[in-house]
Amino acid sequence: MSDQKTPIRVLVAKPGLDGHDRGAKVIARALRDAAPLHGARTYVSALFPSADTQLARGVLREVYRHVEDEFPKVACGFISGPRKSNVGSRVRRCDNTQDELHSANPEIFPRNSAAAYNLSADDIWRLSRSLKSEEPVKIIYYSQTNFGSYFTHMSREGALIDGLLSYPVAHLLVDVRAVKGVQPRVFGAALYTWTGADFIRVVDFDERGVQVDEG
Question: Which of 52, 94, 97, 125 has the most CB atoms lying inside 10 A of its own CB?
Answer without folding.
Answer: 94
